[in-house]
User: Fold this.
Amino acid sequence: DTAVSQTPKYLVTQMGNDKSIKCEQNLGHDTMYWYKQDSKKFLKIMFSYNNKELIINETVPNRFSPKSPDKAHLNLHINSLELGDSAVYFCASSQVRTSGKADTQYFGPGTRLTVL
Amino acid sequence: GQNIDQPTEMTATEGAIVQINCTYQTSGFNGLFWYQQHAGEAPTFLSYNVLDGLEEKGRFSSFLSRSKGYSYLLLKELQMKDSASYLCAVPNQAGTALIFGKGTTLSVSS
Assistant:
């Protein structure tokens, strides 16, 4: 009955490689997100996506790209991995935003990416 | 833009009460969230305040003052399992993401 799931939980790879992280939610939510949490535990938005629009944080390198095969999935592809990409990546989802209120985001368990 | 400030670390003992403060500056306001994150785990939702005042949920309460740009999370009857990071967050102006503070790491000792 997992709400938001991610695979893999751990990912160790070499610089320059291309890798993907998968995310699935079974909450029936319309919006999904990717966040990056660095070594100082600071959680920052990378992307938000629903079936209408992709919002990209302008600070995210274009080596990172989200791909959504359907409403329940939002995968993260990373090309030409760099040492600085090492972090924990969290997927999250929420219902469509209601006017005047923000919707609670539910997080997946995270993927710890280590680039060697 | 959005800016959030909260203390980096706090310590407390079992059974005590602790208050974790959060101040924010936003372009527009659409509520404030508190999340709990245990080491190596995902952030989990604790509370959402959009109106002024105190909201109580068991041992945890959250307070909001919109005029002061201030919120706090109050934890009562502390338990060892409450040792975690507590993250204050507000929606960005477009409402497309949460902007998180750097988190307050709470250590509860016996």
